[in-house]
Amino acid sequence: MPTKAKNKDTKSKNEDLPLTEEALMEEDEEPQVTIEDLPGVGPATAEKLREAGFDELLALAVMAPADLAEQAELGEAVSSKIIQAAKKMANIGGFVSGEALLSRRREVQKLTAKVQSIDDLLGGGFETQSLVEVYGEFGSGKTQIGHQLAVNCTMPLEEGGFDGDIFYIDTEDTFRPERITQMARGHGLDPDQVLGRIHVARAYNSAHQMLLVDEIKKMSKNFNVKLIIVDSLPSHFRAEFIGRGMLATRQQKLNRHLKDLKQLADVNNALVLVTNQVHSKPDAMWGDPTKPIGGHILAHASTFRLYLRKAKGGRRIARLVDSPNLPDGECVYQVTEEGLRD
Ligand code: GTP
Ligand code: MG
């Protein structure tokens, strides 16, 4: 839904973005259909829907009745009717022209790591409208990347930032404001201002983790959501859904969670970064020790995958894996007191 992303970016007072005046005017010409226009949706239901974060037809059209019923506290029959109506009225447009796709791609922004070798590896930086999976062993530097990108996201656009707000879902209690302070100073930024734009939530279990995505959806009305970090993505799911019998359930839930995250990235023209561990020790249940824990579903959901490992002399190596439009490759960088450096 480029409409919303455009409005958002205009809000961040960036004149240089490829948001042309014509593009905005073009959209104004189309009469806007809102959720209130759905047959059978009165003010009270509309309010419930909006409160649950559904303020666009497309968001409703893609829901399953049971999920909508639960999230918006409606009956399942009502939910089903709303979804059917939304499907009819929403401009779902399953097929779009290559030209339209190109203009959507032109909206893509790139977040700098402020490390030349990493930016080069990624063809200029971490792209919006994408889900990046960072995986590696314990201590390989996944959380450091999350912290660094959170800091960089607050930088102005001219400096490769997004001038945006960061939503950080912390599942392992490893977010450290002190570390943000160090990294902000490392780039000459005011630590308090940077910290003020990073919104952190500790997820206590997988259900809470999934609900937090809905929370971000709601908050995107008032914030310029440009970066969503989930560190780490699968740990709660792995701890809660144990054994072969639970494998399908776990993957289903993870899949749903990833879809919700990807939707946030698309709607807000934002970047989603998730971390994922790999085991250093071979583990009977997980087989190949170098495979990330989330398995296949995660691999398919992510647009970019970065595999991190430690090298000699405190250096780190990041390898780009399975990118849709960039060659696989590696780069070397360092984690210092001030943050990531060449
Ligand atoms: P798990 O979450 O345990 O899987 O690890 P991770 O991949 O998230 O690792 P993390 O990002 O926490 O990296 C930890 C490593 O970063 C440490 O072992 C240090 O090498 C490095 N590091 C963290 N803080 C600093 C710092 O202030 N200065 C320096 N020089 N290095 C740091
Ligand atoms: Mg970590």
Comma- or semicolon-separated keywords:
single chain, 342 residues, alpha/beta, DNA polymerase, domain 1, Rossmann fold, 2 domains, 9-stranded mixed β-sheet, two-stranded antiparallel ribbon, disordered N terminus, binds guanosine-5'-triphosphate, binds magnesium ion
What's the helix and strand layout?
Elements: H1 2-11, H2 21-29, H3 43-51, H4 57-61, H5 65-72, H6 76-89, H7 98-106, E1 110-111, H8 116-121, E2 126-127, E3 130-136, H9 142-153, E4 165-170, H10 177-186, H11 191-197, E5 198-202, H12 206-219, E6 225-231, H13 235-240, H14 247-268, E7 271-277, H15 296-301, E8 304-310, E9 315-321, E10 329-336, E11 339-341
Parallel strand pairs: 3-7, 3-8, 4-5, 4-6, 6-7
Antiparallel strand pairs: 1-2, 8-9, 9-10, 10-11
The structure holds guanosine-5'-triphosphate (GTP) and magnesium ion.
The site of magnesium ion (MG) has 4 residues, from helix 9.
What does the model show?
It is a single chain. By secondary structure, this protein is of the alpha/beta class. The chain has two domains: 35-90, 5' to 3' exonuclease, C-terminal subdomain (DNA polymerase, domain 1); 104-341, P-loop containing nucleotide triphosphate hydrolases (Rossmann fold). The chain is 43% helix and 18% strand. The chain is built from 15 helices and eleven strands. It has a nine-stranded mixed beta sheet, sandwiched between helices. Strands 1-2 form a two-stranded antiparallel sheet. It is globular and about 65 Å long. Mean pLDDT is 85; it is low at 1-30. The protein binds guanosine-5'-triphosphate and magnesium ion (MG). Guanosine-5'-triphosphate binds next to helix 9 and strand 10.
